[in-house]
Amino acid sequence: MTTVAQAQVGQLSDEDVAQLDAWWRADNYLTIGQIYLQDNPLLRRPLEPGDIKPRLLGHWGTSPGLSFVYAHVSRLIRMTGQQAIYLAGPGHGGPALVAAGYLEGTYSEVYPAVSQDEAGLLRLFRQFSSPGGIPSHVSVTTPGSIHEGGELGYVLVHAFGSVMDNPDLLTIAVVGDGEAETGPLEGSWKGISFLNPTRDGAVLPILHLNGAKIAGPTVLARKDPAEVRSLLEGHGYEVLEVEGDDLPGMHHRFAATLAEAWGRIRAIQRSAREGTWDGTRPRWPLIVMRTPKGWTGPDEVDGIRVTGTWRSHQVPLSGVKDNPEHLALLERWLRSYRPEELFDESGAPSELVRALNPAGDLRMSANPHANGGLLTKDLDIPDFRGYAVEVATPGVGRAESTRRLGELLRDLYAANPDSFRLFCPDETNSNRLGAVFEVSDRAFAERVLPGDVAISRDGRVMEVLSEHNCHGWLEGYTLTGRHGMFATYEAFAMVSASQTVQHGKWLQEAKRLAWRAKVPSLNVLLTSTAWRNDHNGFSHQGPGLIQVVLTQRGDIARVYLPPDANCLLSVADHCLRSRSYINLIVIDKQPQLQWLTMDEAVEHCARGAGIWDWAGTDDGSADPDIVLACAGDVVTMEAVAAARLLRERLPQLRVRVVNVVDLMTLVRPKDHPHGMSETRFKELFTDTVDVVFAFHGYPGAIHQLVHGRPDADRFRVRGFIEEGTTTTPFDMTVRNRVSRYHLVMDAINNAKRLPRGAADLKVWCEAKLAEHETYVVEHLEDMPDVRDWTLGDWAERG
Amino acid sequence: MTTVAQAQVGQLSDEDVAQLDAWWRADNYLTIGQIYLQDNPLLRRPLEPGDIKPRLLGHWGTSPGLSFVYAHVSRLIRMTGQQAIYLAGPGHGGPALVAAGYLEGTYSEVYPAVSQDEAGLLRLFRQFSSPGGIPSHVSVTTPGSIHEGGELGYVLVHAFGSVMDNPDLLTIAVVGDGEAETGPLEGSWKGISFLNPTRDGAVLPILHLNGAKIAGPTVLARKDPAEVRSLLEGHGYEVLEVEGDDLPGMHHRFAATLAEAWGRIRAIQRSAREGTWDGTRPRWPLIVMRTPKGWTGPDEVDGIRVTGTWRSHQVPLSGVKDNPEHLALLERWLRSYRPEELFDESGAPSELVRALNPAGDLRMSANPHANGGLLTKDLDIPDFRGYAVEVATPGVGRAESTRRLGELLRDLYAANPDSFRLFCPDETNSNRLGAVFEVSDRAFAERVLPGDVAISRDGRVMEVLSEHNCHGWLEGYTLTGRHGMFATYEAFAMVSASQTVQHGKWLQEAKRLAWRAKVPSLNVLLTSTAWRNDHNGFSHQGPGLIQVVLTQRGDIARVYLPPDANCLLSVADHCLRSRSYINLIVIDKQPQLQWLTMDEAVEHCARGAGIWDWAGTDDGSADPDIVLACAGDVVTMEAVAAARLLRERLPQLRVRVVNVVDLMTLVRPKDHPHGMSETRFKELFTDTVDVVFAFHGYPGAIHQLVHGRPDADRFRVRGFIEEGTTTTPFDMTVRNRVSRYHLVMDAINNAKRLPRGAADLKVWCEAKLAEHETYVVEHLEDMPDVRDWTLGDWAERG
């Protein structure tokens, strides 16, 4: 079947060419219309200055190449029934893809105002790059897309994520030669080193070398083609090349090349799925397409070459309203596509144009894989209570909290063999999540050697030493309706922070579009934290991602700081069930004190914050003298230790301990749906008593969160103040002034009412800190067991 | 000379081998000592459990490869006098490089306590990965380094930055095969596409394929070597390969390969500098070195293969204190290096070892290029007043502020032809800095075609569509003592935010080391801002980097929001003269209203914040009724417009307008050196009057900055609240509720004293906003000139 089909797909009849060309002309016409026209959309009368938009915005350069490819893939789909989606890497191909959705009818289905007639065309043109309209790049508003054309570099990571566990999907990923210069893009060619042809679908990258970016040539376009081939072959691809601008020659050559690529993909998949594959990494096909930037646009303007240069990047003809020559040139250009053949009387795409469109959901603009919420099924999640740590007394036993989560993830893998994956830069074991390897290997398509452990072509745990790949693959995976988690070092989560920001923007805007179904959340687990990087030191110490997520809108941003294993399990369960959020979970991987029974943890996490009355001396009969609040595991230990010191040494002081798991509960309800009511806020924090707050992240985060709460100035926050080095967690708390001794002194300094003995206790705390200083300075002489020093002292030192 | 030298360098006598091998053994011995020993450093008695550190931390796997290369490069330097520095990409080669500095004597010179004797050795061992000591990776504390081995991916960007305009420098950049999986690293091979052999020095990348990362194999190590070669040749390199673990065979082969690489580099440079180069991009050499991970370590432990696998990544022998077998194995391993030959009686490195060291500053650990402040010369900065915009009346004329800066940069380029560069992802013209092209082209080593504009192999403006490259090159350039600026889109500055964080950490820690001389600041200019991305929309709208820089310590972090051209010039002049800061400057590139004369701007910027009495109605005789504060250009326009509305329509209300240029002035002086005194703060903001603050970034930033100031709760901040789309700046201010009308209503709602007419004015504002809403909704019907709408209305609408 495939061989025949490949030959068929690769051969164009005259009718095929006519259809392809008409569709392509229509797309190009609509692209130019979007950039230039506010009236006379079908050119039924001569073009006049009044037809031209007052401000010309948008990007022509990359568009004709994108629509050319789109047309050919549509034909492939029509002939083969292939499930395919189309990701446009070049930043500003927006109008071409919007036009494609319009020509396929999908655009009018999701935006009825943009109807299939002249009025709809006018709306299509006017909305583009205009206030109240749509952006000039492919965005969340573009049906058929899971990839925003804004920040460059992620088209391949999204593409590879989309096809994992998606055996029938082919994702076309057009890589612009500007984008190809970015680090994340260059680091993402290697997706095929992690792809399994049996279980996964395929990505067909099309490297579109049109020669220029905004203002100059690109590296790949100016390299010897043999070098480009060598580079891509080095990544493991079979490189197919098409070049030119002759017509219909390019149609014939591209059709043949696309058919060849598709045939190879099908052959690889067939061999794998029929059991004749030898297991070596296939040489997946890749197309290098060289066409001039601004292809079919005006060759020269005012005697200067435009097509094929960076000058065609945006608006090749400027000042059209005032320059009659440019106006005439624009009209000639528009008419060169023969709009009268492309649109019928009513203004709808003509039959000739529509003939190319695949049917129904096979249209790339309508494919449900690009609206993944439609395909999302709930995960089968084992009862998280089954992984609980037994806690008889708070703060006595220790456990590696993330190890319990690892066990849950293991069973999640087993129960959901094609809809859950863990993504991690080579740290799954280090993060104590290694139980997953009991049921799945690491994915690896390159050579596996005897002696390798838990790594195979059949593995589904994604380990690649690239936060960009991990994050981007997970985005592609969730946007096509599957579930996952990205686990990484807290400090290095900043490497992919811009991806978190951009994905957040996608989710935020998607919520405003009724036709976009909600997708699984992006779950990020940070578990080698700022406070416990004993030997790594300062470069590994930074709670920056919390700060980033806090800037996102309340409808998507969630930040959890579970203090122990049972809270972590409860939080993780909640996050795995959620949709369309960014869930940030921060917890240490080392053995840590456990505080709450599972029942207590479930209640505590459901409320997001609560009073730990066993830790304080607040009997509830009156306002406490001081509130000791905490969020984050290491600082919670310090806060509880401080409360214990106060209880033992200053028992008359009424101390209330409040732990916060869900950071967003601190915000006013009008700013975040998790924000606790003012009544509840007062129940926890009172409205006049000072609050000493020990925080995992930067102190400023809490100040901004509690702004607008009753007398927010009374919050004294201690947290990470960029004081780090190779040292123990306890010393980290001293350096950042959030140790138990600092907290005790803060409590005394800010308490409403001071019992006798307070001054002595402060002196004692100062002495303890001095002792610690001496200890640090001297310890290189006697080298005590750092671990004992770190962990053993929480109670003993009290 | 070179030819002879190459042959000489490539050939090893027996004595050469003995020296190389002794030095290498000594380095490996010290590496293991750092990981394991707290006593008995020279093994002068049998090893005992008490000699072993209580906690074993550190990384052996990559270390022997790093020290092997180091030894050979040292020999090259000794024979040729080559200026060279050594950047270790693999994250955790710390002990090997620390040992190298120790063997070269530099370590003891900068840290006298780590002396060249047994006591010093003990200190060297004990400090490693220990509280109060040094981290397990190469860090700012390691002499000879400009590259932290923490966050992976930047070794080549740092290397290329270091050799730009540094013709005599050879930077050895060892790339680990784990690091080679990261996006930033993969995107940085193309540095040679921007290198000029006449004017720049050379980078010799050594791709060290030892097979594994933390927990499994790497992609490049498991690819067919032909594919790896193909990949690197595709990037444009001449690939030289060395493989094996046989000795002394590897010494001979590596020496020959290194000599060949060096010979080729010298030949390329000679040809270019003697005028025989044809101008095509040279094929720079690159070495692929394949040696087993943990080379020379224990082959097997407990019957399991260790050397050559990921198991040797960290501590190959565990539980040594309690396991006599492991203890014996460790002792055998340590003695296999024959320490008695390597250290003399006192414990200092023996003559045999020291014989390899280059002299003085040629030692890589002592090379001043790796302590760039020693080489830094002040820039010759033209008088910034010469680029001033004339301002007769505030807020009447418009100018593109960054265009003036571009003119200053042009003259800076001319005056400093080898010590200043601008780095920008393809947006120099777009950012209105294009004047630089009058004196320098863009740098480009690939093919340049007729018709290309301002791009050549001789260019020194660095445009590559990669924030990672731009940021990293600038880091390398400044760390070796030269000056520069990175200009980029505000939203996409988050792409390289982690580099800003890590470089900040470097600068923060460097300030604590007296021996590290201060280097030029990292100047970041964001000039396509959140508020003015008219057609790009939401993905381009994010003031996230301000938030990131605010988390850095006060000794390095600076954030400036100049409201106009003259302020920008004054701020830029200050930043270009500064040392060892992160200077973030945010200003829009579009035509904008100009407020201050140059004299006023200089005074305003020097103070960092001030009252604009011409904008308000506050006559200074009493506290105002309300303070309208602003920071950032677009929101400053709104604040001034709001003040004007209030002046005209509610003249009895005493309104004070405060503009903030230097954000850090808001912080308490104890938290930042720029923080204004409490007196000054009260002079500007009073201590009781409410402050309506219009801010360029996220509102939370101001809340955290003013925390601790008198009654900080009275600050009502409006700013970017993640409401964006394709629209005008004015509509952006409406969506984010910081428009003039919102500010007027805020002022009324919070003023101490309300004149009659206030309620009417609020109603009027509501009506104006409703009118605007209608306008936005309807405008697609009539398409007015968006530009007029955007800018024309600041005064007219008042």
TrEMBL record, chains A, B:
GO terms for molecular function: aldehyde-lyase activity; magnesium ion binding. Its cofactor is thiamine diphosphate. Gene3D superfamilies: 3.40.50.920, 3.40.50.970. Residues 589-790 form the Xylulose 5-phosphate/Fructose 6-phosphate phosphoketolase C-terminal domain. It comes from the Bacteria. One of its GO terms (biological process) is carbohydrate metabolic process. Residues 12-374 form the Xylulose 5-phosphate/Fructose 6-phosphate phosphoketolase N-terminal domain. Pfam families: XFP, XFP_C, XFP_N. InterPro entries: THDP-binding (IPR029061), Transketo_C/PFOR_II (IPR009014), Xul5P/Fru6P_PKetolase (IPR005593), Xul5P/Fru6P_PKetolase_C (IPR018969), Xul5P/Fru6P_PKetolase_CS (IPR019790), Xul5P/Fru6P_PKetolase_N (IPR018970), Xul5P/Fru6P_PKetolase_ThDP_BS (IPR019789). The keyword Lyase applies. The keyword Lyase applies. Keywords: Lyase, Thiamine pyrophosphate. Belongs to the XFP family. PANTHER family: PHOSPHOKETOLASE-RELATED (PTHR31273). This is Phosphoketolase. It comes from Dactylosporangium sucinum.
